Amino acid sequence: MSRFLLNRLSQSIVLLVIVSIIGFTVLNLMPGGPLAQFGLDPGMTQKDVERLAAQLGLNRPLWIQYLDWAWRLVRGDWGHSFRDGSSVLAVIGQHLLATLLLMGTSTAVAIAAGTWIGIRGATHRYSLFDYCATVGAMVALSVPTFWFGLIGIYIFTLKLGWVPAGNMYTIGDGSVLDYLHHLILPSLVLSLVHVAIWSRYMRTATLDALSQDFIKTARAKGVSERRILLKHVVGNALLPMITLAGMQLPSILTGALVTETVFTWPGMGRLFLDSLGYSDYPVVMGLLIFSAILVVLGNLIADIVIATVDPRIRLG
Amino acid sequence: MTKRSATTSNYSRRDALRMAAFGGAAGLIAPHLLGKPVLARTSSAKPTGRVIVGLGQEPTVFNPLMVHIEVDDGVHFSVFDALFRIDPQGVVQPNLAVEVPNQKNGGISEDGLKWRIRLRDDVRWHDGKPFSAEDVKFTLELIMNPNFRSWRTAGHALVRDITVVSPTEIAWRMEEAFAPYLSFLTETFIVPKHILEKEANQNSAAFNQIPVGTGPFKWGQRVAGDYLELVANPDYFGEGPHIERLVFKYIPDITVLYTQFKSGDVDLVGQPYITPDHYGEAKTLASRVVTLVPRTAFESFYLNMERPQFKELAVREALYAAIDKEAIAQGLYYGVPAPTETFMPRQSFYYNPNLPAHEYNLDRARQILDQAGWVPGRDGVRAKSGVRLSFVNSTTSGDPLREQVQQFLQQTFTQLGVEMKISNLPAAVMWGEFWQKSQFDSVIVGSTYLIGADPDVTNRLHSRSIAAMGGRGSNNAQYSNPEVDALLDKGARTFDPEARRAIYYRVQELVRRDLPFLPLYQNNAVQGHKSGISGIVPNGNTRTESWNALAWHWAS
Question: How many CB contacts within 8 angstroms connect chain A with chain B?
Fold first, then answer.
């Protein structure tokens, strides 16, 4: 196991270096840059822009900028935002919690609902429920999330007045109840897509497990259907789901770009969009590395969990 | 305007009245209709209530001297004070200074080189320390510190020999006479010396995240990516504030911003305001006040004068005649913008209303090109001396209204024998070197020419401001006219508003004649707020709707 971990770690470092070089190069090769937005300011001249570029170190050769950035990163300094000068790690930290709350809730809803729908669909194959679940999943996957968001706001906020139009909390309130009230609509909208994905995967995995020989054996032994389902089918069907969850970890943390925008949620997705819009290279690079680390970590955790759950798999 | 405007300004009563008249009667009457004066409160009641301003961009730079964007101004105007402020009529008013210097009161020497400013003695920083002339000196020197990431240095670069005469008086010498500097100072907020001088690096000072000013509101808290909150400064030296909390809420999606205005989550829609397509509906909303407010930005079809297609005036005239401005303003922009012939905002004292009116006439456009010898080729596109009348037009991608304007013009120009190709770019690319170094053929752009209310447009129209030719400014059309150059030089040295008006009238005439850009219309902001808030007065001379948040209050 330790050999496996060491191996993975060294591979990961190489991967991170490659990702960072590609990311840094692509980002910096885009014309424009963080100072382009001042091009229309009547008082800012080309000379002002050049002066600021020099002060920010943007006029140095690209490879020097990269080495400088990488060396700082190794020492734990992720750089400072061009927009407001605050540390990149602090900026990420400020947005992380909001995303964790939203994505955590919607993922929990999605897993619970998706698993149940998937299993029920598989055990009641070609029933009305199964057809409805299939059609529902297709719709949820085909329709853009922002559309669901806007429709949700129109119906439940503007027409019925049940839930707020957006935001994470009411400014000046911020009680647990207030947070929950604000969480309902965005987390439900966001979980729609994930319910669809989970239910489809779970349905297939359950059908696969149901067709295994050991299930037939269990049935032949007279084990009750309920027991077969809970003890043998679900456990086996969940195995591929662990990999899926591991792969989803980075997407959970990098946030739901569209949902966060529609619901004015101050999370990582919006931070990423904003930082790209401002060409705030240090923050974009920080987010890129952060995501890359999560991808590596997510896969590693999935591997370890699978090995723990399924004794047939050995790592090393 | 108000009692304060008329008496504390150093303009003579006649000057002030004349300027106010040109500023428009609406500006005069509005503050009184709204219940309280623009910059003053009439009672000493404790500030109460909260106003949430919804913004499409997040304010992030709180040191007002550092490079920043428009939305940050709302915070700066509330937390800090400048030596002067500019009122809706374009009249400079004292803020930290006790009077506005001019050549009559001796604040500015006859040759315009020596400036002397007297300051208030009753101002304190939010941490209780007294404000003094030392802070002003420190501020002006910090702007020119080569290691500091200053915003605009134009104007400040001319300041020499700053002398603190006393805690309430400061003087300096200008390298050359520069009348617009007064306007520049209305956007130069004074920062505290006693806090910033201790910092080894002012670019990364803690102050930049938790600013300390002298303004009507103190720093409250900021939740990154979400909102920031200011709280009333009960010890503010002036009248106000009336509201206890001022919140700037960040809502990036323009449709969502409007939805939250409708649902009541935001009390006031700030930049980028309500989109023109929602204007009709917004006007009908209950308990909301929705108005069109003239902005200083104006939309134009910008030409690169160094491109061979555009060198000839006849071509520019023909293209202008082929633009159906009224159809664009009414059909595509829901009647929100106002067609214009100049770059000067119509609310300005220097706006020239006598420019020749544009007339949409395709036949005349064809005639002009025929007479100038631009003959249609086999492909239908006109050409002359080997130059085809074909060019690329660019604007920021993702702006559906501008894209529609492009398509509309493309079709019209085709009827004229002119080929216009469309190639749009993301904003970060568009306004970079492509714009700054005049790498475009033509662009559709919404730009502001003025700083504050000063009519000086040297940076945009003087031939020494062409960055693509090594100049210092933003004359991106590469426009060059010696008469305009001379007038702009003269205008910058002239302090008398009447004399300056004649100069800038003439500049507008020449620019309208030469058409380095084809003026389309002046933008109007569709501003909206809850009807319970009083004291909101638009000021086109500032970049923010929150310029006078100290006067806002909830109707009891």
Answer: 177
